[in-house]
Structures are given as structure tokens and as C-alpha cells.
DNA sequence: TATGTATGAATGAATG
DNA sequence: CATTCATTCATACATA
């Protein structure tokens, strides 16, 4: 822990408290995507009671939320090589004690396709499937954070349907 | 942690194989800088042949690569700027694991406010806004002036008077 | 085993 | 509103 100097440097970045998040999500879920400024003010007012927050934060939050909401899109193009049900959990016993540049820069990696993911011995106890939901009884919105495809998993996208890129 | 001390962590990070890395670096080095969505798909397609991977991963990789690249260059010309690591978060109480999706909601024991950059007095009173949906409301008001109002610190970037809404 | 470093992923903010 | 940048966190991974 180092107990380094705990600078009072507050985050430049606003961090919504769970309570604020709850409220925001609630409002967002209620519909009307981006609330008007008037609404923003009201929301900010309410949220400010739970912590520091500004109208800009609220606005940004909604904007980001909206953008992120687009997840579950990005239909696979015609060409998409996936669906590999390979549980290639061979035996990456190879320690390959990487000195310091084995995984950096070009490296004649010998048959590296096998050691893509760290030895997943979890295949045995891979029962939990994101059931970590908390019984918070809050509005079941739509935010779902999938992850990247794992050997044995199925999820594909998570961040947003489209990460962007100009066409 | 040997006895059922496992968390429901099902979020293993995608680990690019040396081969994938090589391809990615090659593309990145080619100057394609920000590959378009289509490009991402192609790359993902190609890389998926070498191991599990998703477009999101590719996208993130490029994003991180660029950011990291920029960061690397810093601290040479003018001012020095090291200390990239270091979690200088004061951590008033605890902040090791980020629950992210975990919400407290109206939990009888709400004590998560300590996550924000400020330290609320924890009034812990769920007022549950009265900012309900406001029918027929477009933004037509004047600009909104609401920065963040950091207690003691101000935002380094100018966020403009309004967050850029209706023009 | 514990710690440090490297890197992918999440999110808030900026920009166009 | 769409896209990209910047910052932070969590986790993999190498090392002591």
C-alpha cells in the first residue's frame, strides 16, 4: 500500500454515487432520452443532494448513456469468422518465462495460438454466468455489460454496439 | 482464497496472442491509425483465426495503443511527467474492488457513497426525486451553465458555458 | 506467497 | 447526436 501521501486531490472526474446512478438510471429508463435543460437542472438539483454534481455531468451522463445504449447492434457483417466452440484447453504448461520482451514487439512466438488465454482450469467451475446481479429492485434498465468472447463464452460486445469510427 | 474464496469473477481479460499482437502492431504501425469499423471487422476476422477475439477487443486495443503511445512520449521534451502508475486515490475508506454494476438502491445499509470523490455526510435518505418525466418538454431554454464545482479544485478543461445542446 | 508492472476494459468528458 | 480522447480501475502476468 505504501501509504503514500494521500493527496487531497479529488478526482477531476465526477464519479456518480450509487444513489445518483440509481436516480439517473431511473430517469433515463423513464423514457425521453435526453431531457431538456429544464429537466437537467431539476435532476441536477436532486442529485446534488446526494453528492457533488453539475448539470454538465448530468447531461454528459445522459449522452453517454444513450450512446452506450446502442449496444446490441453492429450486426455481424457478411464476413465474420467466429462461433468457434473450441475449448482448446490443452496444456500450456510452458512457462516461457518471458524475460521482458517476449510479449512485446515481434516475437517468433512458437505456436502461440494455444496459449491465448491463461490456462482456464475454470472449465470445471464455470457455473456462474454473470448472476452477480444485486437484488436492488431498481428499474431493470438495459445496460448490460457483456465482455469479450471467452473460450466457452458467447458474449461478444460490451462497450457499445458501435465503438465509433467514422464511416 | 483456496476454499471457495473465489469471486464470481467471470471477467477474464482478453489476452492477445503473440500472433494477434503482431498483426495488430503491424496494422497500427502501418499508419492506419484509427481503423474504421469495417477495418475493425476485418481485423477481428483475421485475428479470430488465431484465437478468440471480438471487435471490441480490437477497438480497445487500438485505443489503448494510441493513448499509451502518446503517454510514452510525454516526459521528454518539456516537463517531466512520470508516475504513470500510482493510485493516488486517497481512499477514505475502501475502494479496492469496483462493484460497477452493483447498486445499492434502497438498501437498508447504504454505505457506498464513499466511492465518490467527495465525502457526503451520508444523509442516506432516499428522496427519490420528483423529477419525474415531464411530458412535452423540449429544450428551448437558454444555455446551461453548470460546470462541476469541484470543492477546492476546478476543472482544468473548460467545459464551455453550455454542454452544447440544441443549437 | 506477495508485490510490482503491463495492459485491457469501463466510463466520463471533449470534439465535431 | 456520433465519434474519439483521456483517466481510472481491474486483472493478467512476471518477478522477488
From TrEMBL, chains A, B:
GO molecular function: DNA binding; DNA-binding transcription factor activity
Residue ranges of the region described as Disordered: 66-113
CDD domains: homeodomain
Domain Homeobox per the UniProt entry, residue ranges: 7-72
Highest taxon, organism lineage: Eukaryota
Classification via PROSITE patterns: HOMEOBOX_2
DNA bind region: 9-73
Primary subcellular site in the record, as a coarse category: nucleus
Keywords recorded for this protein, A-Z: Developmental protein, DNA-binding, Homeobox, Nucleus, Transcription, Transcription regulation
UniProt KW Nucleus keyword: yes
Database matches in InterPro entries: HD, Homeodomain-like_sf, WOX13-like
GO BP terms: system development
Cellular component annotations (GO), alphabetically ordered: nucleus
Keyword Transcription regulation tagged: yes
Subcellular location as annotated: Nucleus
Stated family: Belongs to the WUS homeobox family.
Protein name: Homeobox domain-containing protein
Amino acid at each position: 500500500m505504501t501509504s503514500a501521501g494521500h493527496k487531497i486531490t479529488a478526482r477531476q472526474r465526477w464519479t456518480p454515487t450509487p444513489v445518483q446512478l440509481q436516480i439517473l438510471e431511473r430517469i433515463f429508463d423513464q423514457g425521453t432520452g435526453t431531457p431538456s435543460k429544464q429537466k437537467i437542472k431539476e435532476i441536477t438539483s436532486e442529485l446534488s443532494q446526494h453528492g457533488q454534481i453539475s448539470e454538465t455531468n448530468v447531461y454528459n451522463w445522459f449522452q453517454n448513456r444513450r450512446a452506450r445504449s446502442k449496444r446490441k447492434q453492429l450486426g455481424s457483417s457478411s464476413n465474420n469468422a467466429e462461433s468457434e466452440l473450441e475449448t482448446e484447453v490443452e496444456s500450456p504448461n510452458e512457462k516461457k518465462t518471458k524475460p521482458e520482451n517476449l510479449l512485446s514487439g515481434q516475437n517468433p512466438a512458437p505456436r502461440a495460438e494455444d496459449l491465448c488465454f491463461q490456462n482456464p482450469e475454470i472449465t470445471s467451475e464455470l457455473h456462474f454466468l454473470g448472476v452477480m446481479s444485486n437484488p436492488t429492485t431498481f428499474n431493470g434498465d438495459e445496460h448490460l455489460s457483456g465482455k469479450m468472447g471467452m473460450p466457452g463464452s458467447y458474449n461478444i460486445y460490451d462497450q457499445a454496439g458501435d465503438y465509433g469510427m467514422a464511416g
